[in-house]
Amino acid sequence: MERMKHWIAAVLLLVAAMHAGAQERFIVMASTTSTEQSGLFAHLLPAFKAASGIDVRVVALGTGQALDAARRGDADVVFVHDQVAEEKFVAEGFGLQRLPVMYNDFVLIGPKSDPARVAGKDIAAALAKVAAQGAPFISRGDKSGTHAAELRYWKSANVDVAANAPKGYQACGCGMGPALNIAASSNAYVLADRGTWLNFKNRADLAVLVEGDTRLFNQYGVMVVNPAKHPHVKTALAQAFADWVVSPAGQASIAGYKIGGEQLFFPNAKAK
User: Fold this and answer.
1) pLDDT score for 14
2) What's this model's pTM, rounded to 2 decimal places?
3) C-alpha torsion angle, residues 178, 208, 137, 259 (rounded to 10)
4) How many angstroms from the chain centroid is the CA of residue 130?
5) Interatomic CA distance for residues 240 and 119, integer angstroms
6) CA 26, 32, 36, 41 torsion: positive or negative?
7) pLDDT (mean) for 89-116
8) Beta strands per DSSP E along 46-113
9) Nearest 5°: phi and psi at 171?
10) Is residue 36 within 8 Å of residue 66, measured between CB atoms?
């Protein structure tokens, strides 16, 4: 009887250990506020867990902050949208490989009355008008992928917001959702990714005013953190996510995410 008790105790300990091991099947992903606030992850990650049994815990930051978190070893995988910064991350040895995953586009949002008369396709011309008229403009100001794109567009408009910010320019240092909320409450212009805009409920008097410029293209990429830099990262589990999100199943899941019948992201894993 005593031997039986020991045997049962050993089995119970083994089951508990196996259960604990199963609970540890998760990765930390540093990603952008746009992928989370657009609702994509609420759609995508349950599909990945169903296929793999792996949980993904998302830390939503601006792209620059997400890459910095990965540099510190605080994430296993990165899913962001600033190709120049991503390629630098890999070149520095922090990421194993950059894989293109999907794209959408940026849009310039503003009051429906459009006091600065920016409506059209030319993002540089639109921002030049915003600056010339001192119209209120909300910048993410958070080193995110959207902020990096915005700075490129200001530069193309020959406006140096760092040295001489336009009269109505305001940097909130915040995510995409909060930036849109500030723009809605102050009737201001703001650059947004289309996915977050489509999922945004508090639109007030705002509308899409500039879209369709090829410069507004917005590419997303995924990178597994290099274990040579941080041996504790869960490389195999992170690679499983990267492989799945560029697989036919992952790409189909991305394409299947829609709001009001409109697709938010377009898979392009085979893009170079």
Assistant:
1) 37
2) 0.85
3) 10
4) 26
5) 43
6) negative
7) 98
8) 55-61, 77-80, 95-111
9) -95, 125
10) no
